[in-house]
Description:
single chain; mainly beta; Chitinase A, domain 3; Thrombin, subunit H; five-stranded antiparallel sheet; 2 helices; about 40% strand
Amino acid sequence: MQISAEKVVHIHYTLTNDEGDVLDSSEGQNPLAYIHGQGNIIPGLENALAGKQVGDRLSVTVSPEEAYGLRDDDLIQAVPKTAFEGVEQIEPGMQFHAETPEGVQLVTVIEVLDDEVILDGNHPMAGMTLNFAVEVTDIRDATAEELDHGHVHGLGGHHHD
């Protein structure tokens, strides 16, 4: 069976940056499971996996445009410290979920001033070229329920309580 739309695909992967630092890996864990063609993973990796089969190993370099996008300076903004009511200590590197007109967005604190906090709404990997070492471990047809929900259920996927 080949990877194509509406297939559940299980992959083991190691993600590195251009300096060779490991940013993420499925090593020692269940493989990552996704539904091909549903936008569950970044486009550059999904495109490279199309047509592959179980046992295939590949190295994929994904440009920022095909990953988490280029950095956008407009996503850096100052907010008053009072917006962090109930947070005792705000430090650079902390991440929060913020309500935006586009929905919930992850923001990272980059600087703390006297009465303001500078936040970066870019994805932490925006602007980065990503290098994946991937092994395809399983391919199956997605169930009707998985297609309806837009994500994999069971091993390596989403669990409903």
